[in-house]
Design goal:
Structural class: alpha/beta
Number of strands: 14
CATH class of the largest domain: Alpha Beta
Helix content: 40-55%
Strand content: 15-25%
CATH superfamily of the largest domain: Periplasmic binding protein-like II
Strand order of the largest sheet: 4-1-5
Number of domains: 2
Number of helices: 10
Radius of gyration: 23 Å
CATH topology of the largest domain: D-Maltodextrin-Binding Protein, domain 2
Shape: globular
Order of helices and strands: HHEEEHEHEHEEEEHEHEHEEEHH
Distance between the termini: 72 Å
CATH architecture of the largest domain: 3-Layer(aba) Sandwich
Length: 269
């Protein structure tokens, strides 16, 4: 009887240990569930550049990290019931960090492309835009994306805009910030830059420059969404973020944040 009782106790203890492994403490396994791990940690780590106004940048007065994407990501985190932990990093470093697990997600005007969809599982889009070519106001040689062939542009490394420049035959110089791309065009170091129309217009408005112009607009709509590492581990997280985006849209919060930073609603296609 003693031997049998001991065996029963050991078996029960072993089963308890197994049940506790990979558990969030609430009976939900975190081993293969990214969302459960985030909720257990109480925070979601978000990669962002912090230097691409008005999407993600620092307030000139307070130096606080602000922007359209920053507020959208913070609102999503609140819906998930966790703290938004922003980590500033170069654009390509943010994408790589999502793949390796260094960051839970990225909020930085990341547009959905077929190539990126091979590497990332995207959420539903939360905003829409168009890519544009910006040149000197006096430039009469570049009037379309095709006119970039054999010319020079400047863009963030790993961005869609860098890829678009190369696809159209341009030699692309990599820089870290939107301001740098515009400065290189202004001082004649490069002939053009490809960027989001919203960012270009914001730059024109905030700087008051008349030296630059939008020379061409891509008719194809750019869809901004949140990239997550591929795999079933992120299924529940992607679903939860999609639900959060939909709730924020219905509540009018997406439109409100968009109006604040763009003076227009770019969250409706």
């Amino acid at each position: 009887m003693k031997k049998n009782l001991s065996l029963v106790l050991v078996t029960a203890m072993f089963a308890t240990v197994l049940a506790g492994c990979g558990s969030s403490g609430s009976g939900v396994s975190t081993a293969n569930d990214h969302l459960a791990r985030i909720q257990t940690a109480g925070k979601i780590t978000i990669a962002t550049e912090g230097c691409w106004a008005p999407f993600t940048y620092h307030d000139e007065t307070t130096d606080e990290l602000v922007g359209f994407d920053v507020e959208i990501a913070a609102a999503i985190a609140k819906k998930l019931g966790v703290e938004a932990d922003f980590q500033e990093v170069a654009f390509d470093g943010g994408l790589t960090g999502v793949t390796t697990g260094a960051f839970d997600m990225m909020a930085n005007g990341v547009d959905v492309t077929d190539e990126r969809s091979n590497t990332y599982d995207f959420t539903e889009p939360y905003a829409y835009d168009h890519a544009v070519v910006v040149t000197l106001a006096t430039n009469e040689d570049i009037k379309s994306f095709d006119d970039l062939n054999g010319r020079t542009t400047a863009n963030s490394a790993g961005s869609t805009y860098e890829a678009m420049g190369k696809e159209h035959g341009a030699t692309v110089s990599n820089v870290d910030t939107l301001g740098e791309t515009m400065t290189l065009v202004q001082n004649g170091t490069v002939e053009a830059t490809i960027n989001a129309n919203t960012s270009a217009q914001d730059y024109f408005n905030t700087t008051g420059t008349t030296d630059l112009k939008v020379a061409a607009v891509d008719p194809e709509v750019t869809k901004y969404a949140i990239p997550l590492a591929k795999g079933a581990d992120n299924d529940t997280l992607r679903k939860a973020i999609n639900e959060a985006i939909e709730e924020l849209r219905k509540e009018g919060k997406l439109a409100e944040i968009s109006q604040k930073y763009f003076g227009a609603d770019i969250t409706a296609e």
